[in-house]
Amino acid sequence: MNYFKNQICDFKDPVVTMGTFDGVHLGHRHLIEIIKSKAQQKNRKSVAISYYHHPLETIHKKTFPYLLTERKYKENLLKQMGIDCVIYLDFNQEMANMSADEFLKKIIINEVGPSEIVIGYDTHFGKNREGDFKFLEENAEKYHYLITAIEPYRIKNKIISSSRIRDFIREGDMEQANQFLGRFYSVTGIIRSGDKIGRKIGFPTINIEPIDAFQLEPSVGVYICKVAVDGCEYTGVTNIGYSPTLKKTGVKEIETHILDFDGDLYRKEVEIKFVKRLRDELYYEARADLIDQIQLDIEQTRSYFDEDKTE
């Protein structure tokens, strides 16, 4: 394979979809259920064509924090939903300059050879985004594939999209983001050594360095969260921000206090699942006031999950 280098996935005449699939939200899940069903009916493999990084990085020649899912996590989600093979294009300038016709022939037909293509309503490819459902439909007989377009998936008449979910996360509206995702939005990272100030005031925290530096972080503030580490899940309170009462570094950090936990997690991989935003990050003149506020945050977190159990 010229455009899918160093990738091993055995398939013939598969049912294919393509896209960034950032977030693997409910709209993506709806699409994947249809692809999975079609592939099973034909006794074929289901294949998702995605990207090592977002095409906008190549087109705009810059990177910025926007991803909802880092690549490994995205692939795991897609496979858990039933996709047999996830293959990646290393989207470069050559691909960015390809016409839709070149992209279809060189990449989709010659290298993947689909018996059927299923795409979302907003799928585009090729230079100037000229490849779309109509284009694929016009070429279906020539290249001997079936083509299906899936209508947008909605909640309360709102189209679910990655861009809309990004807006929710930037605003700290985790409940809306989670509703559109169909799961808790999360950031996976490695626990690194901190300055242990939290321990000194009675609330030890873990400091998380995200695995993907380009994943979108929720807005600055304090959040109710779930913490997945070493196969276990705990309740926690996460602060995203600068800890202005305790620190003067001006460096934004992700720090989580895990409730009812005492152990060493240094250098372990952890997933922080954001449940709900509690409040803004605040500055306190006295540490005692901060301690009182943290205690209140913990009480609210416990109450949130206690109420959830009784519903």
What name goes with the CATH superfamily of the largest domain? Answer: HUPs
Number of structural domains: 2
Oligomer: single chain
Catalogue the unreliable spans: none
Average pLDDT over all residues: 92
What's the level 1 CATH class of the largest domain?
Alpha Beta
The termini sit apart by 53 Å
Spatial order of strands in the largest sheet: 8-9-12-11-10-13
Largest sheet: 6 strands, antiparallel, barrel
Number of helices: 10
Predict the CATH topology of the largest domain: Rossmann fold
Helix content: 25-40%
How many strands appear in the DSSP assignment?
13
Structural class of the helix and strand makeup?
A: alpha/beta
Second-tier CATH architecture of the largest domain: 3-Layer(aba) Sandwich
* Coarse morphology: elongated
**How much β-strand is present in the residues?**
25-35%
What pattern of helices and strands is seen along the backbone?
EHEHHEHHEHEEEHHEHEEEEEH
Rg from Cα: 22 Å
